[in-house]
UniProtKB/TrEMBL annotation:
InterPro entries recorded: Cyt_c3_hydrogenase_gsu, Dihydroorotate_DH_Fe-S-bd, FAD-bd_FR_type, FNR_nucleotide-bd, OxRdtase_FAD/NAD-bd, PyrK_electron_transfer, Riboflavin_synthase-like_b-brl, Sulphite_reductase_B
Domain FAD-binding FR-type, chain residue ranges per copy: 5-96
Alphabetized SUPFAM superfamilies for the sequence: Ferredoxin reductase-like, C-terminal NADP-linked domain, Riboflavin synthase domain-like
Gene name per UniProt: asrB
Gene3D superfamilies, alphabetized: Nucleotide-binding domain of ferredoxin-NADP reductase (FNR) module, Translation factors
Protein name (database record): Anaerobic sulfite reductase subunit AsrB
Length: 263
């Protein structure tokens, strides 16, 4: 029987700086995750951290990491050729099959773009999979922009709105993502659409409110929660909110349930 909590040593293939505080680590592995799942990345004698998969392909996975604590600080000391330990993949990802032939609205804040990157690339690579894609991505400032090349590429096929909270940048809006939700033509979608929201808890909370104001039913909204996870297998109870275990029941939730989980 496979040991679902045993880490496996994996070679770092590439390290790419995304922004002032984020790096993407490409790791050699044959693990095949679903879009939106996460893995536990660890360093012996230091600890481990749950990190969502930002991209994957034959023989590799990408993890876009922000330095926020002891484990991620230690990971940032690693270079190509070094070793990271992985276990997973865990959790429930995006219901991609349900998104087929729908108009997709994806709204992200900051590093919340990472958990949807692989799915957005699928929509880009398979233009007939969805009817349309509307993407709103916001960042605190220009130094915090990640996936710059992908943002430019997605503009070719998606309807995009990119925004900085307060800074000004050519071709970008200034303001919070909540201010641009009303620009999405929900009335033109009929009943064939879905909305994905990922970002910091306050961003998801208030973006959810704005989407509901546009008349979107709760069951058409999806969110991803990554906070508070620890063991990833529902044993430690660290991520339990009432009767929900985020690591097992999520990290992706429909808004009918997610509305009770937002801080």
């Amino acid at each position: 029987m496979k040991n679902i909590v045993k880490p496996v040593a994996c070679k770092i293939l590439e390290v790419k700086r995304e922004s002032l505080h984020e790096y993407t680590y490409r790791v050699e592995t044959d693990i095949k995750p679903e879009h939106g799942q996460f893995l536990q990345l660890s360093i012996p004698k230091i600890g481990e951290a749950p990190i969502s998969v930002s991209s994957f392909g034959d023989g590799y996975m990408d993890f876009t990491i922000r330095s926020v604590g002891k484990v991620t600080d230690e990971i940032f000391e690693k270079q190509a050729g070094d070793t990271l330990f992985l276990r997973g993949a865990y959790g429930k990802g995006w219901p991609v099959d349900q998104f087929k032939d729908k108009h997709m609205v994806v709204i992200t804040g900051g590093t919340g773009l990472a958990p949807v990157k692989s799915m957005l690339n699928k929509f880009y690579d398979e233009p007939d999979f969805t009817k349309s894609v509307h993407l709103i991505s916001g960042f605190k400032n220009e130094e915090g922009i990640i996936f710059k090349g992908d943002l430019e590429r997605w503009k070719e096929r998606f309807d995009t709105i990119y925004a900085l909270d307060k800074d000004h940048k050519d071709g970008w809006e200034t303001g919070f993502v909540t201010e641009f939700v009303s620009r999405i033509p929900f009335g033109d979608f009929g009943d064939d659409y879905a909305v994905v929201v990922v970002g910091p808890p306050p961003m998801m909370k208030f973006t959810g409110f704005e989407v509901l104001k546009q008349g979107v039913p709760e069951e058409k909204i999806w969110m991803s929660f990554e906070r508070k996870m620890s063991c990833a297998v529902g044993k430690c109870g660290h991520c339990r909110i009432d009767e929900v275990y985020v690591c097992l029941d999520g990290p992706v939730f429909n808004y009918t349930q997610a509305k009770y989980l937002v801080d």
